[in-house]
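Q: Hi! First time doing this. I have a protein sequence and I read that you can turn it into a structure. Is that right? Here it is:
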Amino acid sequence: MPTTSTARLVATIEEHIAKKEYQSVFMAGGCPFFALVLHEELGLPLYYSCPAEVDEVRHAFVMKGQRCLDFEGWKPIEKVAAAYALWPEVPPRPLSLDRLKEDIRKKNLGSDLESRLAHLAREEFSRNRSVYEEMA
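A: Yes, that's right. Below is the predicted 3D structure, encoded as structure tokens:
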């Protein structure tokens, strides 16, 4: 049975999907789905960002060199670290494919929403492929 926080997350994601606010979907709660597509399509390694004192996936993305790639496009490591680790000095951490899939499972979003997020992530990647492939 989903927790109250899971129910809120599901409701928020559903609302953003209904309004076609895909940046909100994939930058707040749905980032693991988009990171998975980036990893599969571009072959770039997965990473995550979080404060130094915790070890949880706050934001998932891929990296090349000193640049991170997520739904919004390419950005410097410092920008992602400041936003999700709370300090620019906290470097991104490598993320295994198994851990990413486990993080998705732990969100307990339900198979229907997970399937829709995976499909939507692929559609959005295809729609903006040139932006994501720019530096890959």
